[in-house]
Specification:
The complex is a heterodimer of chains A (344) and B (384). Chain A has 344 residues and is mainly α. In chain A, strands 1-2 form a two-stranded antiparallel sheet. Chain A has helices at 2-32, 49-55, 62-74, 89-124, 129-143, 146-163, 190-197, 201-238, 241-248, 253-290, 296-305, 309-337; strands at 80-81, 87-88. Chain A has one domain: MetI-like (MetI-like fold, Orthogonal Bundle). Chain B has helices at 2-5, 51-58, 95-101, 123-134, 138-154, 159-175, 184-201, 207-211, 220-232, 250-267, 278-284, 302-307, 312-319, 359-363, and strands at 7-20, 23-36, 40-44, 66-78, 85-89, 106-109, 238-242, 270-275, 287-292, 295-301, 369-372, 375-377. In chain B, the strands form two sheets. Chain B has an eight-stranded mixed sheet with strand order 6-7-8-3-9-10-12-11, sandwiched between helices. A four-stranded antiparallel sheet of chain B has the order 2-1-4-5. In chain B, a hairpin with a 2-residue loop joins strand 9 (287-292) and strand 10. Classes of the chains: A mainly alpha (344), B alpha/beta (384). At the A-B interface, helix 9 and helix 10 of A face helix 3 and helix 4 of B.
Chain lengths: 344, 384
Amino acid sequence: MKLRDFILRRVLLAIPVVFGVLTITWFLAYVIGNPVALYINENTPAAAIPAIYEAHGFNEPLHIQYFLYISNLLQGDWGISASTSFRPVLEVIAQKFPATIELSIIAMIFAILAGIPLGIISATKKDQMVDHVTRLFSLAGVSMPIFWFALMLKYVLFYQLTIMGLPHLPPGERYSLINFRSFEYTTGFILVDSLLFAGDLRLFIDGVLHLIMPAFCLGYLTLAIITRMMRSSMLEVLKEDYITLARSKGLTERIVVYRHALRNAMIPTVTVIGLAFGALITGAVLTETIFNWPGLGRWAVRAIFFSDLAAINGFTLLVALVFVSANLIVDLVYGTLDPRIRFG
Amino acid sequence: MADSDERVLEVKGLVTNFYTYEGTVLALDGVDLFLRRGDTMGVVGETGCGKSVTARSILRLVEPPGRIEEGEILFRQIDPESGEIETVDLLKLSAEEILKTRGGKIAIVFQDPATYPNPVFRIGDQIAEVVLLHQDLSSDVIEMKIEELQDKLTQDVPAEKRSQIEEKIDYYSLMLQEPPPPDDKDAKKAALRRATQMLEMVRMPAPATIATQYPHELSGGMRQRALIAMALACNPAILICDEATTALDVTVQAQVLNLLNQLKKEIGTSIMIITHDMGVVAETCNWVNVMYAGTTVESCATEELFATPLHPYTAGLLTAVPKLHETKDRLPQILGTVPNLITPPTGCRFHPRCEYATSICKTEKPKLEELRPGHWVACFNPLE
């Protein structure tokens, strides 16, 4: 009962947040360019231009246009993306979102599975060689620009290996388009579709190979942030009195660290993980562009180039929703980790 | 020989240093003390005189940058089968063996009930954890099963089933003679049952409920009792209370001290109480060790210490305690301050503040000697 009330309250609180994000982007997007440009090419007669303005409602006052957008949105109409062959925004999102989500989830899993143990080892072996190496590795992760790092990876793991005639990783796309010409998406997740619907193990392996480089690039920054956070909160927790108590009970160092310290140290790390998941969706913009990944990020960049207002707003709305849900999940995880913050 | 057999714990020449950026802190400089079986022994001294470091050194819980450098910590336990006394030097035990001693044979209750229990685990689980680690629960498990069956009998059950259950109880009762090793799940349940019993023993109201609660749901006094229950859960030979009552208000403090002395009789534990409160010592301890700047300066029975202190520091400490029957504007104090232990005074560490100091005090360190029967003092010019 309490849990349901908590979720309900958080969802209600999220509404003004999402609405605020939407309002700000809507007006900001209007400033960056003329949306009518998308509907005009060199063959459009000059006399027809005023009619285009009229037809799309661009002659209305700004606030009327805004209210029109919102009322359409509430009816499930996210508008038409003029830069994507005039297809409905919602349809494009439904088609491209799985690619981004799949990439982000794999990147996140990699970041968590590697970041947390690295942080723990770094903290328990403080100032030893392992710690120094880990710190250097995570410092590089937070300092390196993703686009540069992605290009370097591609240069070495695809280009150089190919030249040397060695097995190499694919440079982009979600699977080898040439080898699997007849493949059609069902859920949009390549790893799921290849196994469950196409039943093709070769396609699955191909999909995994295509995921490695982009997922590593995308996850590296998050991994670095998680490692650093885990290390510092673990060091903090290991100084706590309850750790001395745990040691005084005669528990082995392993149990002291992994049972008594880890759960307490996870609390700040979980916050970072939640925020980072939202950031992954937006971070995918660069990674997707470099690895030719047919996801939302690339689509959003194109939309911005063309001042495709409906697409920009749709993308922002989606990102806001992802952030809000990630934070809700974080709060729920908090409750299970720490009894003191149980959905009060 | 009989004299030393009585001493369940004996610390000899313990030296512990802390290697900090500011320099080496010579925290313990040859601490000597002993705890006799069944005694409640107090360790008193000002803040920073090394009481807590001594307690932690005994369990080898000194963490870097601290390190135990020298000394012997002899622990004499009675073998439960042969009844013989077995002496081990805790400082020479392997890492594995010291883990068995901690919590199992020597337990410690720390100062601050607010920060010592782990905030994310239930009280019962935290107590059960230490029971599971050190105790053989095989007979507990069988007892638990018998209890469960007896519970069933009190309810309405058909006659045929009743006889079945009774048969089962008989079967388990037989097993009690030589209980088989329990499986993990049963052991956990039994450990939790033991935890609840421990909470009841420390006079906790509604122990079964408390066991399922988290530390933040309890008051300070209750948390301290939970910590005591945790420490006593394995019937340790020695219980060290490191300022265990300092954070509590006076009435709760009195309750906890009373409780400790009652439990001592029930379990047969020897207790070492670390405190800076002379009142606590007078009320609960029958032996006192006075520490000053990392050394033991005086050690004797409590009445003797209060009646005839021999060390100038002890005497100064006692005159600084307000007395009910005297009216004074200002309490006398020991002049000067506690020395910086990075550069401690040469010779006797108390000499700069001592009104009886002579030239030898500046150059030589006095040894702890038995000046009167059962009264040890480390001083060149003891009061007579």
